[in-house]
Amino acid sequence: MDLEPAWHRVMYEPLLEKLGKCNVLFFLIISSSEFHFTILAFHKLEQKWRHYNPLKSLGTRKQERRIDIAHHIVNIVEENT
């Protein structure tokens, strides 16, 4: 018995419909090893991505890793639209 169509109808389709009504989508990027997070946001009306880091004073290497993760998320989202 294949439950995927029922799951798709009950969960996925309503979620996509609600996300379509949002002007900004937020993706939390969490670093468990450093107990730190950044936020990647897509501003739908502007068609722009923004990366927010509350601790910009961290070393360059640590910032680059988070930016790499943010770029990876953008690529995944844009490839599947």
As residue ranges, the low-confidence spans are none
Number of strands: 3
The total of helices stands at: 2
* Whole-number tally of structural domains: 1
**How is the largest sheet built, in terms of strand order?**
1-2-3
The topology string of helices and strands comes to HEEEH
Shape field: globular
Broad structural category: alpha+beta
Any idea what the radius of gyration is? 16 Å
Kindly report the average pLDDT value.
Answer: 76
Strand content: 25-35%
Range of helix content:
40-55%
Sheet of most strands? 3 strands, antiparallel
- What distance separates the N and C termini? 29 Å
How does the SSE layout of this entry go?
Layout: H1 4-20, E1 24-31, E2 36-43, E3 48-52, H2 60-79
Antiparallel strand pairs: 1-2, 2-3
Q: In summary, what is this structure?
A:
The protein is an alpha+beta fold and 81 residues long.
Keywords:
single chain, alpha+beta, 3-stranded antiparallel sheet, 46% helix
What does this entry look like structurally?
The chain has 81 residues and is α+β, with helices and mostly antiparallel strands. The chain has one domain. The chain contains two helices and three strands. It has helices at 4-20, 60-79, and strands at residues 24-31, 36-43, 48-52. The protein has a three-stranded antiparallel sheet, covered by helices on one side. A hairpin with a 4-residue loop joins strand 1 (24-31) and strand 2 (36-43). It is globular and about 45 Å long. The two termini are 29 Å apart.
